[in-house]
Amino acid sequence: MATVWRDRVVTIRHMADRPKAAVLGAGEIGIAFCELLTTRFAPIELWEPDPDIGRAARKTGHAGRVSADLAGTVSDATVVVVTTGASERPSVMQDMADHLTSGAVVIIAGTGHQRALEDAVRTLPSHASVICATPIAWTRPGGTGASSAKGPSSVRPFADAVAGISPSPSAHPDAVGVVQAILEAGGATAFFADPREFDALATAASVLPTLIATTLVRVVLGETPTTSSPNDFDRAGGIAFAEMTRALEDPAQGIEGDVAIVSDHALRWIEQVIADLQATRQKILDGDTSPIGIDAAASRRRQWITTRKSSPELAILPDLPTPARRRLFF
């Protein structure tokens, strides 16, 4: 009995006909992709060079095989999802290039779409369709709601996320549609963005909050766990400080090294934050009693929360010429 995935080109008649998928990197997003792909692909093979991380990933049960053999993992895979840190990504793509099956769809999920596509052009064969696709989460892992649903028909690890898609110029339109379908099946709302535009948005959404939280901890709590906090802040700190620094609880995989990949965007955001804080500092120094802008910022935040929780129809395929109809690989 045929199963059609969102009216795309993905048609699977029975388990034996399911195409193989490979996921590279057993971080949080890698495991999420494994969980999602198990509903439509078989086998799912996960590559993780760190044996300790690999053992933990094996216990999740989302991958049929967890291995440190990169060539064996990507061999014969019709979909390969690269979730390694941005600093390791070029070498991983170079090492897997000769083992990709013809017409494979390569999904790159992570920081730095612009750099990733540049690296892909340099390292991957032209027959592969390369598409950057990175979810930006809304609900936290393990939370309630759709993201915690179980069962093969309701696996939604990206529930309430938005996912930026940046296809390479040579990516086949059907491959782009498959990637969009995968993300939407996982609960994400997909949107298409220029790689540089997405990098600027993702830096503000993920990197900047982590950098600010890092600064707050260093300034208020001290440089190291053994440093005493001023005025016993270790005990006095409350929920406001905890929420402000929550980004450090579960930072994006490899974010420490990824800052360099989006350094121009990070610098621009940091400079704007510094300028705003300096303006506030000057108002206080001048004894200016006019509002600092807290109420206005709170109102703007409420407006953003409302907008972010809505479900706009953002998932629009790019306007590409229609090629001669052919089966991609399913």
Task: Explain the overall architecture.
- With 330 residues, this protein is an alpha/beta fold.
- The chain is 42% helix and 12% strand.
- The chain has helices spanning 28-37, 51-60, 70-74, 89-96, 113-123, 173-185, 195-221, 233-236, 239-244, 255-258, 263-285, 294-309, and strands at 3-4, 11-12, 21-24, 44-47, 65-67, 79-82, 105-108, 129-136, 162-167, 189-192.
- The chain is elongated.
- The model is unreliable at 1-16, 142-153, 314-318 and 320-330 (pLDDT under 50).
Quick take:
With 330 residues, the chain is an alpha/beta fold.
Helix-and-strand structural type: alpha/beta
Uncertain regions spanning at least 5 consecutive residues: 1-16, 142-153, 314-318, 320-330
Instruction: Return the string of H and E elements.
Output: EEEHEHEHEHEHEEHEHHHHHH
The CATH superfamily of the largest domain is NAD(P)-binding Rossmann-like Domain
Name of the CATH first level of the largest domain = Alpha Beta
CATH architecture of the largest domain: 3-Layer(aba) Sandwich
Largest sheet: 8 strands, mixed
How confident is the prediction overall: mean pLDDT? 83
Please tally the β strands and state the result. 10
Helix content: 40-55%
Overall, the morphology is elongated
CATH topology of the largest domain: Rossmann fold
Strand content: 5-15%
Strand order across the biggest sheet? Answer: 5-4-3-6-7-8-9-10
Head-to-tail CA distance between termini: 15 Å
**Number of helical elements:** 12
Radius of gyration from CA coordinates: 22 Å
Question: Mind sketching the topology for me?
Answer:
Elements: E1 3-4, E2 11-12, E3 21-24, H1 28-37, E4 44-47, H2 51-60, E5 65-67, H3 70-74, E6 79-82, H4 89-96, E7 105-108, H5 113-123, E8 129-136, E9 162-167, H6 173-185, E10 189-192, H7 195-221, H8 233-236, H9 239-244, H10 255-258, H11 263-285, H12 294-309
Parallel strand pairs: 3-4, 3-6, 4-5, 6-7, 7-8, 9-10
Antiparallel strand pairs: 1-2, 8-9
